[in-house]
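Fig. S4 source data, part A: sequence.
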Amino acid sequence: TDNSHLIPFYKPALDLSYEPYAYQKIAAVSIDAMFGLNDEVERSNILVSSPTGSGKSFLIQHAALRAAQENKRLIVGVPLVALAEQTFSSLRSLLKPFEKENDREFSKVGIRTGPSEMFPDADILVCTYEIIAINMALSIDFLDNTPVLILDEIHYMTDRDRGARVEYIASSLRDGTGLIGLSGTIPNAPQFAHSMQRCNGRMTRLIGL
């Protein structure tokens, strides 16, 4: 489906040195709708199928900034501890203006991977898949006030060893939580988008460079 009709709704949030790609603008508009910032746009899931280096991290940054601005939660799931630590560091830098002076116990961004845990009660949490799945199973309020859950490298859903964790997360979302999947390697992207749509009953916009 052509999503270009969303581009005129784009409102820049990040301080960028470049003009975003069309798919990034579409993603930003969709994310804003998830956070209730645009009632003219239908709330949907997003699946980004786009090559490595084509700017998929833009979605994580835009969603994190909106979560901070709106005092909402955001969960970012990644497959590897090293990637979680990299994402955590990037988001802490982005959201530094939201930190509290002279309060080292506070951060808008936290990380929970098992080996790495800092600010576990932060509104914006970067976690491994396993941590998200465990917390969703143990706590009914883990996704409270969470309009968006992002799964980076979502193609791991087809992995023989770890796919069940990712599938459990996607299929156990609440009605109020939209799903964003990011990947550079989805050969059957339309079918994958349809599977995401079945998870929470939301249309899934398939976009990418």
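Fig. S4 source data, part B ends here. The CA atoms of residues 109 and 124 lie 5 Å apart.
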